[in-house]
Write a structure and sequence with these properties.
Blueprint: E1 2-4, H1 7-10, E2 25-32, E3 42-43, E4 45-46, E5 58-60, E6 69-79, E7 88-94, E8 106-113, E9 123-124, E10 126-127, E11 139-140, E12 150-160, E13 169-175, E14 187-194, E15 204-205, E16 207-208, E17 220-221, E18 232-242, E19 251-257, E20 275-279, E21 289-294, E22 299-305, E23 311-316, E24 322-325, E25 333-341, E26 344-352
Antiparallel strand pairs: 1-5, 2-3, 2-6, 4-5, 6-7, 8-9, 8-12, 10-11, 12-13, 14-15, 14-18, 16-17, 18-19, 20-21, 21-24, 22-23, 22-25, 25-26
């Protein structure tokens, strides 16, 4: 299809002095070389599907073209008073042949080190998404079998849907001795203190919120406040220890201590025999998560926190056993979930991808 813009100007309607009238284009037609007479040309189509404006964007079909060579294309339009405007013409050169775009995909990829074994004889590569079905693919190679230590040339090539191999892409790789391993990362202990550091491992211990230090990210619960602590502004410090018994850097926050408060703030106990299901888990912000409580009293509220303990979502529940909790706008990460019922509380975690 060819799109023709500014038809009003092109057909001479402005030059004819029709610019002050509320005139729309009702019909347009075109023809090649010889005028078949007004109304006998090939109809043009309005780009927006309807002829309703004085200025229209129109299309003509290029499915049937005149013979190869130089031709003159004519266009004219009719207004709301059934008056045909003057002809607009332009020279068009028709060329032989046609342009087609093949379905381009990567069907295979291979790599080799240093010496080319020949097309199709390299080591096969895998598509990162598990399927070679695009023109651009993220590929991965097996790094378990590497050449000798030192500098080598890694060569990669791919084959398209027509079974034609592309050019070789090469890069220099320095193979180093040894191997890289990633230890299991988890928190094994945590502690806190006020103002002056008593030394690693000698501050007041903290508890894991789920009762077990077994994750890289843990939600912590403090115990008794270290004494003596005077009323007023202090710096509360926290630090944790990893699986290798190495203490991390301390994190401090300014707090205002009020020693006049009587009693303590209790943390509700988990409800015995209750089971929390989170579906799906992991989830994403758009889908949210269905929270279901079984083997216990009905839910009254569901709360979702971030890893810093900030309340992210709070959903009241009117005594049902399940509720959809939205996670719109939640960043990727792990979120503790607290499910309240009339008889207690149960804790879980939701992962957002």
């Amino acid at each position: 299809m060819i799109t023709i813009r500014n038809l009003l100007i092109a057909t001479g309607l402005l030059a004819a002095g029709w610019c002050n009238a509320q005139l729309g284009v009702t019909t347009a037609e075109y023809f090649w070389d010889t005028d078949p007479g007004v109304g006998n040309g090939t109809a043009l189509t309005a780009e927006d599907g309807a002829f309703g404006e004085a200025l229209e964007q129109i299309q003509l079909s290029t499915g049937t073209l005149p013979s190869i060579g130089t031709h003159r294309l004519y266009i004219r339009a009719k207004d709301e008073d059934n008056g045909w405007g003057p002809l607009f013409s332009t020279i068009v050169e028709i060329f032989p042949g046609a342009v087609s775009f093949p379905d381009i995909t990567v069907t295979d990829a291979e790599y080799f080190w240093d010496t080319d074994p020949g097309e199709g004889n390299g080591t096969a590569m895998l598509a990162f998404d598990g399927n070679f079905n695009a023109a651009l693919e993220a590929v991965r190679l097996d790094a378990t079998s590497l050449p000798a230590d030192g500098t080598h040339v890694l060569n990669i090539r791919a084959r398209d849907a027509n079974n034609d191999w592309g050019a070789v892409f090469s890069t220099v790789v320095d193979v180093m001795p040894g191997s890289v391993s990633f230890p299991s990362i988890s928190v094994s202990a945590a502690e806190y203190w006020f103002d002056i550091d008593p030394g690693e491992g000698t501050a007041t211990p903290m508890l894991a919120f789920d009762g077990n230090f077994n994750h890289a990210l843990e939600r912590l619960v403090g115990g008794d406040i270290p004494v003596p602590v005077d009323q007023g502004v202090h710096v509360l410090w926290l630090r944790s220890r990893d699986a290798n018994s190495d203490w991390g850097p301390p994190f401090g926050i300014v707090v205002n201590m009020d020693t006049a408060i009587q009693g303590t703030v209790g943390v509700p106990e988990e409800e015995a025999g209750a089971t929390v299901e989170l579906l799906p888990n992991p989830t994403d912000g758009a889908a949210g998560c269905m929270v279901r409580l079984t083997g216990a009293d009905r839910m009254t509220r569901v709360e979702v926190y971030d890893v810093q303990g900030n309340l992210v979502v709070s959903v009241p529940v009117n005594g049902t056993s399940q509720v959809l909790v939205p996670m719109v706008g939640a960043a990727a990460g792990v979120y503790p979930v607290r499910v309240h019922s009339s008889k207690g509380v149960h804790n879980a975690r939701i992962v957002v991808n």
